[in-house]
Design brief:
Length: about 425
């Protein structure tokens, strides 16, 4: 085992009253904990009903105990899980007894998962996938996080690494025989390996932006002139009075956000200040913010009154609707948040457009992954250019391949990520 540390413990389930609360213990003193609380440890991975007692022999709780031996647990260490009755008093009593035991201490945020990383049970990409899975609120987020947690990104990076190591080995073999006749020309195989890896990197790099949107949520901005019905539409989409509506123009001064789920995708709707020329300083700030958020949004919904000239030019793929359909003689391509006319059709169109964007996501999900893949791609381009100069430059080309391999290794945490670990694990809860 690569990582040796104190024995740690923590509540692994949410604090508060519940049907069951799980306390997790990990480290070399697990057997001592078991003997102190209830006697012999249960058989590995078999639950046993145990009566827990404190040092004075007073009953703490009747609980299920689960024991996982070293190298067969989440952390890679010996792990004991106590499935208690979910009473705050019971949990506090058990934690108090554990804290009084010699060699035990309360776990820090994410420390169980960090030990899993240090002991080789998870790679860094899987740790990030676990963090995303814990934070997942929608079906798309769950599926994406589970792919990363299952090791798909690590496997992909491993495949690229294997191909590049093969290419580097072929080049270095050529260098070793530079003064002799090499029986086989390795150039075609090396070129093919580099081309394939480069093409796969390109696909993944393009998909990171969509994958990040699934993680953080898509933004849809509702735009239009003052008093055109933006806030009323937002309330209709949200199913509640999220924004103040008024017959007076300029009611909305700031960007109002409403988070919802569309077809499993996390979406934040933005109700923005009405776009117009104004001498009101505060309203002007709101209009400027509206423009900035609209430009950064993934999709914009424009509401136009009859005969209105748009003050903000729609972008490709944006949605355009005539406003206040309930007041029009011909409500085609119009919408009314007041009556609900056209709202379901708008939701369907928004969902389709965002689903298309989400469909472009790949296995890599974070900006860190994208940067590492870009670094690898740049090194591959340099390697191909150098190899084209001939055998005299092969040693430099081999070094470029090693640089690309190191960049890919950083994705799964083999190199150059120590400064990231504290930041990553600080987002975890204690007990995970």
């Amino acid at each position: 085992m690569a990582y040796v540390a104190d024995t740690i413990f923590a509540l692994a389930t949410a604090p508060g009253k519940a049907g069951v609360a799980v306390v997790r213990v990990s480290g070399s003193r697990v057997a001592e904990v078991g003997r102190a609380l209830f006697g012999d440890l249960p058989k590995p991975r078999f639950a046993a009903l145990k009566l827990l007692k404190d040092r004075e022999g007073r009953r703490l709780d009747q609980a299920l105990a689960l024991y996982f031996p070293q190298n067969n647990s989440f952390t890679g260490e010996e792990v004991l899980e106590l499935h208690l009755h979910g009473s705050t008093a019971v949990v506090n009593a058990v934690l108090r007894v554990l804290s009084e035991m010699q060699g035990l201490r309360l776990a820090e945020a994410g420390e169980f998962t960090r030990r899993a990383l240090e002991n080789g049970c998870l790679d860094l990409a899987q740790v990030e996938g676990l963090a995303d899975l814990i934070d997942a609120e929608t079906e798309a987020q769950r599926r994406q996080a589970l792919r990363v947690l299952s090791g798909d990104l690590g496997n992909l990076a491993g495949k690229w690494r294997t191909d590049l190591i093969r290419a580097a080995a072929l080049i270095e073999a050529t260098i070793d025989f530079v003064d002799e006749d090499v029986p086989v020309d390795v150039t075609p195989e090396v070129t093919n390996l580099l081309t394939e890896v480069r093409a796969e990197l390109d696909r993944e790099i393009v998909g990171v932006e969509s994958a990040e949107r699934i993680r953080s949520g898509f933004e849809v901005a509702i735009l239009g002139a003052p008093n055109v019905g933006k806030s009323t539409l937002l309330n209709a989409l949200a199913g509640r009075e999220a924004a103040i509506t008024s017959e007076y123009a300029g009611t909305t001064r700031d960007v109002i956000e409403v988070r919802m789920e569309l077809n499993g995708l996390p979406v934040t709707l933005l109700d923005t200040a009405g776009l117009r020329e104004t001498d009101d300083h505060v309203e002007g700030i709101g209009i400027q913010r509206a423009r900035e958020r609209a430009e950064a949004a993934d999709l914009r919904v424009f509401l136009f009154a009859d005969g209105e000239v748009p003050d903000f030019v729609p972008m490709k793929n944006d949605v355009i609707r005539s406003a206040k359909a309930d007041t029009l003689d011909d409500p085609k391509d119009a919408i009314s948040g007041k009556t609900g006319l056209g709202v379901s059709e708008l939701v369907s169109e928004i969902t389709d457009k965002l689903s298309q964007q989400a469909g472009r996501s790949g296995t890599a999900t974070r900006e860190r992954h994208r940067i590492a893949m870009i670094r690898a791609s740049e090194s591959l381009d340099a390697a191909r250019a150098i190899l084209a100069l001939g055998p005299d430059s092969y040693d430099i080309g081999a070094e470029e391949l090693r640089t690309a391999i190191r960049a890919l290794d950083s994705i799964v945490g083999h190199v150059d990520v120590e400064n990231l670990l504290d930041e990553i694990f600080s987002s975890f809860c204690i007990g995970k």
